[in-house]
Amino acid sequence: MNIETTTLLTVFVPIIGSLTIPLAGLVSGKARSAWAVLLGGFTAALPLLLIPTALGGGETIVRKEFVLGLDFILVIDPLSIFMSIVSSFVGFLIILYSLGYIRHEENQNEYYLMVLLFIGSMMGLVFSANLIFLYLFWEIIAICCWRLIGFYRLKEFVKKADKAFLMTFFGAVVMLLGFVQIYGQTGTFDITAMRGTIIPGSAVLLILFGMFTKSATVPLHTWLPDAGVAPTTVTALLHAAVLVKIGVYAYARLFLYGFRLPGAWPDVIPIIVVVSSLIAAGAAVVETDFKRILAYSTISQLGYIFLGFAVANEAGINGSLLFILMHGLAKAGLFLCAGIVIHATHKRDIREMGGLIKTMPITAAAYLLCAFSVIGIPPFGGFFSKFLVIMGTVRAGMIALAAISLFTAVLTMIYLLRVFAQVFLGEAKAPAPEKSGSMVFVVALLAVLSLLSGLFVSFPAKLAAAATTHISGWLR
Amino acid sequence: MTPTTLLWTILIPAIAAALLALVPKGVKFVREIIALIAGGVSLYLGFALFAVKNLEWRLPWLGGGVDFELRLFHFSSFILLGLAGFLVLIAVYSTVKMKDHPHVRSYYALVFLSAALANGAVLSDNFVPLVFFWEGLLVTLYGLIAIGRKGANKTALKAFVISGFCDFCLILGIGILWAKTGTLTISKISVHPQGILAAAFILTMIGAIGKAGAMPFHTWIPDAAIDAPVTFMAFMPAAFEKLLGIYLLGRLTLDVFKIEKGSGLSILMMTIGALTIVLAVMMALIQKDFKRLLSYHAVSQVGYMILGIGTGVPIGIAGGLFHMINHAMYKCGLFLSAGSVEHRTGTTELKKLGGLAREMPLTAVGFSVCALAISGVWPLNGFVSKEMIFHGAIESGYTIFAIAAWVGAIFTFASFLKAGHSVFFGKKNEERPTVKENSLALFVPILILALLCITFGVFNKMPLTQFIQPILVGHVEAGESIDFTGHALSLFNPIAGISIACLLLALGLHAYGWKRGGKKAYLASEPIHKAPVLKTLYDWAEKRFFDLYEQGVIFIQALSLVLFKGIDRPIDFVFEKAVTSVGSAMSGVLRKAHTGRYATYLAWCLGGLLVIAAVLSVLTKS
Amino acid sequence: MNSTWLLYMFFSLALIGTGLYALLTMKNLIKLFIGIEIVGKGVSLALLATGYAKANILLAQSLVVTFIVVEVCLVATALALIINITRHTKSLDVRSLTKLRG
Amino acid sequence: MIFLYIGLPLIVAALLPLIGRASKKLLPDVLGNGVFLFLLVYGLTGAKSLIGGGPVVQSLDWFGETVALKVAVDGFSLFMLAVIALVSLCVGLYSISYMEHYGSKANYYALLLMMVAGMNGLVLVTDLFQIYLFLEVAAIASYALVAFGLEHDELEAAFKYLMLSVVASAAILVSIAILFGMTGSLGFSGVAEGLRALNAPGVVAICAALFLLGFGLKAALIPFHAWLPDAHPSAPAPISAILSGLLIKVSGVYAMTRIFFHVFGLTPALSQVLMWMGAISIVLAAFLAVGQKDMKRMLAYSSISQVGYVVLGIGIGTPLGIAGGLFHLLNHAVAKGLLFLNSGSIQQATGTRNLDEMGGLAKRMPITAATNLIGSLSISGVPPLGGFWSKLLIIIALVQSHEMLLAVIAVLASVLTLWYYLIIQRQAFFGRLNERWAAVKEAPFWMSAASVILALICLGLGIVFSAVITSWIQPAADGLAKGMGM
After folding, report:
1. Which of A30, B465, C49, D291 sees the fewest Cβ atoms within 10 Å?
2. Residues B269 and B384 reside in one and the same domain
3. Are residues B247 and B266 in the same domain?
4. Same domain, B130 and B232
């Protein structure tokens, strides 16, 4: 199979496959779940075939002509391959976990359909090199999110889903306006054709607005904590693997790989993201809802990822890429741990929990390991990413920002370990047994992967370094 | 010895840790065998590598200057040997002391993991692997405290956050260094700490002294003394962290930065050292708990090391480094004897103990030797290293720091008089049951340490020439002497005289306090505790006004509340309420206008016609 | 010639204006409908006058005839509506027709 | 045989009331839908090749030479014919089940066919007065159809609709009279030439304003919109669909566009007025829609808002803008038709149009829910559905002609659009099932079938947007931009 076919299959197998889920659902529930897992696994396996290409560097561009410059263009380079591997893999794990988690819920057909469509669109987005198709896949993801956030169909939940959809849609159309403005200047939506172009500040503002909304950066973040009403699998999907990472990925794709930032923007963006990171961390310290704390934590960590890309030097980019992977694994682990706890205790407020380490030791251990990774403690994977981002920031001469980021890391320690102490240690307030099967397996796997990704960091680092070299090539 | 041996020094304890974690809880024998074998192998490697001295090993890692570089040279081999020695002693001691601990599996695994990480940190010749191992110790620190008694997780979090903060400072400092020098290989960096690099030095220094437990990053140690297993105290704060912290401080001041005698940074370090000595010892003096008292000394003694290294004169630096290894020995011994007492009597409160010397004579001997060594009594090792530090402080030209160090010496001795008197000597407390001497595995490590204290003191030439002197080779300016053996044992110079006078003063203080306290040894420090100004200060300290962590947590909570209520919620309000109500209000107004009356609608149409006609005419004309 | 056309147009506009005034002020459905008719007559007058003025009376006549045909249909529909409305509301007052609003 | 478009529906409409006596249900259903299907197939296949070499003109004598009925087909009219046939076919299919309980199916189909004939005629003619004529044919049929239920709401709505429409017609006629007087002609090209010779911008302004009142009222642009939110919800659901989906666009937008482009020429002043009227309609109607409780009334306001987009796009006057406007016209016709049909299905199933009383219907009516979702997202401009592409084209055109403010309005209003469509989704379909509707059943076959067809078209327009634009929208836009060339 050549590169082009592999990529096209990666994108369209899950998208088209997702539409067949209801058909499989007609056969039986088991068949449908098996089919979903199969599709997910296939999607996760396909990009792995592209690893040699990525390590070799260079890029392949696939193009299908449409009217008015709305061509369908795919760019296959180390950056997109890295991103596709990470998100499809985490997505696959989440599907596995779902087998146990939503076993007793209604609307499972829709659930699996949306999740697969979600992952497929993510693949499409990652490989898209046309601004409009980037936007298009992004909005398909938004639709999926909306349905998935409102999965439990309670009125307040659906309202939160609507809020998420509306806010992200708002950001997206503003971003679209920015794209159109760029089109007005360059006459093309093709990212590969506008590399190195300096775009006007207003377009940057519009596009950043969209990115910040989509990846929940202060002050456009409030939909993300509210989206915690979704099934935990979905929150994990939103936070860890796919949705919020897109904004960061798009930043790299547009502003590092694509056009250049004018004026003072390169200095302003790091400040915004660091402040966002700090505010979210502060909110996480105050919150008491398990999932909301993790949500704010996501917002906070996203600040780091943005920061690495925003400083735009090799260490920073490398760090951010690794961060996407490490945070994907660890945050998915944290959310799925929260899922097990909430599923078992039917409570969401951490003050009502306690002492669960006795009844669910694996979950507790997994939580702790993932928390260490998110905080950035070696030998877990999160250490390297955070370290490199900070290094990159200092290298770019923004020592004060690096210092604030490190202070935020202290806050991260406090809130994540506070949750651990409150939920797993201390007196048992609502003891509940650990659910066995796929859920605990996935959580443990994610925790172990967080550890292994740190111990054997040189393997993912190789891929990230290839992507970094590729991007840096354009930066010079 | 191939370079890969370096890797084995890290991997053997790590593999042992993994095995220990897997051994089921019930199988005690196997666990102890694994622990002892791994400790023995480590010690063997330590000796073997100490003989080899020079090895380098390198593996490409993340790219961009971030390589996995290990380097063995004199300094690191010395520390490596020390770490291995303490690991063996702790392992032996733990076989009895930790036998029935509920978390014994995690305990052993974490101890050996710590050893692996510490070895890695010592060997790293690149800042990234250094931080990797250095900060990795946070995990074991958290784990080892958290498995202590109930509620220990708060202290664990405290230790974790404080150490984490220091490590983050280290990272920031490293970042600045990297940005300025372009390399992360430690042995390639040698800069003058000027401008932003001075900030880099201070930040990295915080990383080093934070690990060593200097003020103000010490506050978790006294808490951990109560909450964590006592072997942990002997192992981490007393031995491992001191060795690591001072090792890094030594490398920073000797290799990475060129700290000159009398420079601002030198004075800064000396000030930190002096303050740590005095303040911590003052706190130690008034403690009523054996372990807590020891833990404050663990802080106080770091002050001597920092002061010594900070002087910037060879004898001071040598003294600081020598004090590091000496302190590790006697403080480890002291904690272990406290552990032995706790093992038998079940308590470490001074009030409830007394007269144990008769029942546990070997432990008492071990304790006494270590206590005298820490107090700097001739001819024990503490005397030698402290003398060198006094000399260094005076040579640096700032006598005030020497005075501070002497003040520290007074109270150190006073507090150990009090501790020894109330625990081992004096009258037996009637409420305390009679106990027996501990088993072999418990008192042998203590006695070994006591013996080492004597050896290093009496035959100080050997350690000074074998261990300390070579470290300074190449760092001492031409013409200056690096032969310190002359100073070492001469009792007859004015400086040693002052030291001895200090010890006598301490004896007097103790006697006075003992009498005033109704011949109760544990009340011997009360005159100072209740002294006019000091009483208030002590009260504040008890209320943790001076605990930066507690204050920091309050600050962080306030800040978080401000960020949450002041920024996050208002933003949410804008999206959740403001936008929707503005929308609904708009809608309401417009809907009101649609009255359903035909005439209104017709009027709108005709009005619209007029407006459009007017606009069109105007636009057409212009 | 042109002035004659303008004169006719003036009267036709006056008729339309009258009709619109009636539409804006009358309350009775029938009267409203008469207003519509007045507007219609004004429009027919305008068409005829224009045809006359432009010497194209044939075309204008055919237009007006068509217009009348259309109007007949309209009248039929409108009256049917009014009859039905009266059946429902038992009144001819336009103010009873304000149920649909907002 | 272009006359078939007018003649066939008219003839069948005339016959139906007679046939209706013989067969109450089957024959009207078959005949009505047969006509629509024929027109659609003919439009998509036969007529396409007809205009391969440019516009085609045919004439039918009536009242002698002077008032000969001259019809012409170019890309624009053919596009409109296809849209009309498409939507009316779906509406016709839907009516098979839906109109069961209304009785008098024959009359219903007769009126429907008459309306379609009127719209087809309007699209084909080349003469100002004939535009008026067919406008009235379609309008009178629509008054009757709005009042078809003969309840209070229907009558009130129809009455206001009629009374306002007549004023609009009068304005159109006055304007025609003035133009006739100034140029002595009624044909598009004749008037256009006369005006060029006359060079009287003042007259053009007055006439344009009168036309804007007339056609703007038909298209329900604000402030001429007040009748629409009454009339559209009151009609039977298929009629609402055809009124919102087609009538306002054919008798309003199409006629306006045809006259402004081919008679007056789109002056910058006219362009500005059109764009701003569009923008104001978009925003105000969107706000009005947000506050509605009645599902159909919300959809009606949405129609005003979306017609605003169409007018905004066409008003830009650049080929891209026109293409965007026309594509949006198509998308809106399909999607809004679909949504009104769905609202009918819900009303039939639950007996209510009040959103507050619904809830969780997705569980009982999955097809309706799914198709409704597609329609809503398409209109809101969420990719990958058709509505996204048309809005995108409009926004690109706005930015290219440096109308940033309007572009921002157009963009932000789409957020408002999504807002109220999410309200529909939340209240009606998404969310927990309301206990009251536990026994509700999915709509009957033909109703579901019509919804599914329209939903698939919505989806298809998004996926094969490129082909649709090249083969249908571009020729239409070119036809408009270049002029009739007769």
Report:
1. A30
2. yes
3. no
4. yes
Phi-psi domain of A106 (left: phi exceeds 0; alpha: psi -120 through 50; beta: other): beta
Query: Could you tell me the CA-to-CA distances from A291 to A257, A285, B533, B562 in Å, in that order?
Result: 34, 13, 50, 21
**Candidates B128, B138, B563; nearest CB to A283:** B563
Q: Does B69 fall in a domain?
A: yes
Q: Please give the Cα distance from C52 to B313 (Å, whole number).
A: 121
ipTM of the complex: 0.89
C-alpha span between B21 and A361 (Å, rounded): 14
Instruction: Report the phi/psi class of residue D359: left, alpha or beta, with left for phi > 0 and alpha for psi in -120 to 50.
Output: left
Average pLDDT over chain D reads 88
Is residue A227 one of the residues assigned to a domain? no
How many domains does chain A divide into? 1
pLDDT at D306 > cutoff 80: yes
Q: What is the pLDDT of residues D107-118, one digit of tens each?
A: 899 999 999 999
Which residue segment(s) compose the domain that B575 sits in? Answer: 550-621
User: For B594, which of C23, C95, C101 is closest by C-beta distance?
Assistant: C101
Q: For A133-157, give the DSSP string.
A: HHHHHHHHHHHHHHHHHTTT--HHH
Q: Are residues B35 and B80 in the same domain?
A: yes
Residue ranges for chain B with pLDDT beneath 50: none
Written as one string, the DSSP assignment of D339-389 is HHHHHHHHHHHHS--BGGG---GGGT-HHHHHHHHHHHHHHHT-TTSHHHH
Lowest mean pLDDT among A195-199, B366-370, D31-35: A195-199
Angle at D439 between CA D437 and CA D443, to 5 degrees: 90
- What mean pLDDT is predicted for residues A396-411? 92
Instruction: Give residue B482's pLDDT.
Output: 63
pLDDT band at D49 (very low <50, low <70, confident <90, very high): low
- Cβ count near B263 (within 10 Å): 16
Is B30 domain-assigned? Answer: yes
Cβ–Cβ under 8 Å, residues B152 and A425:
no
Q: How far is CA A392 from CA A273, A310, A328, A403, in A?
A: 15, 10, 21, 12
Q: Output the pLDDT for position B349.
A: 83
Please count the structural domains in chain C: 1
Residue that has been written with the tokens 């290409």 in this structure: A53
Q: Write out pLDDT tens, residues A95-147.
A: 888 888 888 888 888 899 999 999 999 999 999 999 999 999 999 999 999 99
CB contact under 8 A, B568 and A315: no
C-alpha to C-alpha distance for D281 and D390, rounded to whole angstroms? 17
Helices (H) and strands (E) in chain C, counts: 3, 0
Nearest Cα of chain B lies from the Cα of D46 at a distance, in angstroms, of 42
- Judge whether residue D484 has pLDDT over 60: no
Among candidates D162, D184, D230 on the partner chain, residue whose Cβ is nearest the Cβ of C56? D184
Size of interface A-B (CB pairs under 8 A): 144
**Residue B482 within any structural domain of the chain:** no
Q: Structure tokens of D49? A: 């090749």
User: In this predicted model, what pLDDT tens digit does every residue of D265-284 receive, in sequence order?
Assistant: 888 889 999 999 999 999 99
Distance CA D471, CA A205 (A): 37
How close, in Å, is residue B184 to chain A by CA atoms? 11
Total domains, chain B: 3
Contact D/C (≥3 CB pairs under 8 Å): yes
Position D486 scores a pLDDT of 35
Q: What is the mean pLDDT of residues C23-38?
A: 91
Closest CA–CA distance from residue B414 to any residue of chain A (Å) = 39
Residues 550-589 of B with CB under 8 A from A: 553, 556-557, 559-565, 567-568, 571-572, 575-576
d(CA B435, CA A349): 49
Does the N-terminal peptide bond of residue D233 adopt cis geometry, omega within 30 degrees of 0? no
Query: Taking CB atoms and an 8 Å limit, are A219 and B571 in contact across chains?
Result: yes
Which residues pair with residue B349 across a beta bridge?
B289
Domain that holds residue A307: 264-476
